[in-house]
Amino acid sequence: MLWRRRLGNFTANRRGIVALVLFVLVALISLAAPLIANDRPLLLAYRGQIYAPVIEDIPESRFGADFLPTEADYANPQVRGAILAHGWMIWPPIPYSYDSIVWNAGASAPAPPSGRDWLGTDEVSRDVLARVIYGLRLALLFGFTLSIAASVIGILAGAVQGFYGGLVDLLFQRFIEIWSGMPQLFLLIILASIIAPNFWILLIFLLLFSWMSLTGVVRAEFLRARKLDYVRAAQALGVRDSRIMFRHILPNAMIATLTFLPFILSGSVTLLASLDFLGFGMPPGAPSLGELVGEARNNLQAPWLGATAFIVLGGLLLLLVFIGEAVRDAFDPRRGR
Amino acid sequence: MVRLIITRLSTSIVSLIILITLVFFMVHATPGGPAYSILGVKATAKAIAAMNLKLGLAVPLPRQYAVWWWHLLQGRLGYSYQVNQPVALLIRVYMLNTLALYLSAIVLGTILSIIVGLIQGVYYDRLAGRIIGGLQLIFYALPSFFVGTILILIFAVQFRWFPTGGISDLRIENPGIFVYISHLTLPVLTVAIVSIAGLSRYFGQTVREELTKEYVRTAAAKGVAFPRILFGHVLRNALRPLVTILGLSFPYIFAGSIVVESVFSYPGLGWLLWQSALGQDYPVISAIVLLIGVLTILGNLLADIVNGLLDPRERFD
Q1: Which mean pLDDT values do the consecutive 10-residue runs of chain A (337 residues) have?
Q2: CB distance A277–B145 less than 8 Å?
Q3: Residue ranges of the domains in chain B?
Q4: Contact B311, B1 (CB under 8 A)
Q5: Helix, strand, coil content of chain A in percent (nearest 5)
Q6: Which residue in B has a C-alpha nearest to residue A299's C-alpha?
Q7: What pTM was estimated for this model as a whole?
Q8: B87-314, which class in CATH?
């Protein structure tokens, strides 16, 4: 009954529904990135044998005695000719991966959009559309992982704080006050300049500070709930503390946390993009939306880079904010029949 | 009240000590150490040893930590590796630029937020209010380096009304104030837009809430003209929480400076930090981080105390 009302509130917000549908679409497309934009064909038939180069490495020598037994470069016209002479290839819609150089772009890098590179090429002549799709995938994967990890830690911390109260709560509060008072971005930059990050190291770095976003809400909920009769009854019955916390109180606390999740996600995406823009995030070569904005900034003569970055990154963040607002309104107890 | 001040003060002091210690360990934990940063990868072992001695790095770590504190308390911040200038001097120069940028942006942003918020509060359910709400949402979602880049692409590249970055034109002999103003415009606009998105949203909601209160209805029933109700009463009441918000967000200004300044290559403190981080210039990095950290912590302390003074409910935890 409660769910119906909340779901009703959510669906009533048309902006939120449209945003959610678009977001899911974008997420699915980006997750399928290796099938949509890749520098290897999806399926390949040669002399009657069928291969799937997308998932396996095939040595070039398979296609002719002249070739070396190195990994096949399917962009090479000789390799292509050798394959097509005795078989066929099915290519993904975009024949570039995020790191494949476009050798014959027709103009100096960055090249404007053309028939082959629909969004043009970037500074080092990589296809922008391919980088955008992989970049979305990276941003979403990183964002979700960071959000989930930060939420789990934050909820645990808030639960412990709120449930036990007293000295535990006080010490924890002081710690959070101090830790959240640190200049986070600056410390992250120093850390990133000491240890060059990859996906996982960056995740750990950002996790150091992002976990604090949910603790306040969860703590408040647990502080409130521990005074209620059903909790005291459970304690009197001898139920273990952890069971009370996670089986009984937590589901009520989840309501408030759910409303924060889209904002945590958009915050994570923004943070990653900011670090990438400054050059301290993902290693060079990784497909990153923030890095695309950086390239747009450094190549003002190539406005298609800026336009692409604007639409993609801006669009993604906008969708997340719309969804977040809709979720928050849905759970608002003051609305609905 | 006094108890609040004491607890907040003690937390702040502990925060400061932790921050200073953190920065010390991060800076001295660099692989290879500062000697490598200065002399380069091809330096001989003898040169590295000599440099380490000169930099005071040959002594055991706890002693370095004590020396670090001793220097800090004297105000000796060291010399930059990249430009070989005293760090204190660098900071003083670049700090002025950052202050010029941010003070202008705050003033502009606050004034515009109040205007926009007023309009939004009054016309909340009408078209104007919704358009403003939509724009606020859009700019709230976009990060600041984004807004900055777009502004450059539109106003500096397309229309050529403003320069694309920097603080002044090196080709001009004696740049007057107008050169500086034209260079300042886009960065100030960027910071102002981002802050308006957040501030005016809050202010608009506050105004709207105020307008639903009883005293407004009473005044209208008494026959007071609407503008007078708005500016004489509602505005004053709505401004009070705004001041608190402003005060609370003041410390975070510097955090945003690094991004905006890097977009415009604006020679301020954030830009200096960025360049130093790229070049592994640790004396400058640690000095700036410490400065920002101290300002942030002090700013938080001040905001908490002011908040406690204004709102008695905030005096207890």
Answers
A1: 72 82 91 86 83 82 78 82 84 84 78 81 86 92 92 87 83 83 79 82 88 84 82 83 77 79 88 88 87 87 85 90 84 62
A2: yes
A3: 31-76, 87-314
A4: no
A5: 65, 5, 30
A6: B153
A7: 0.84
A8: mainly alpha
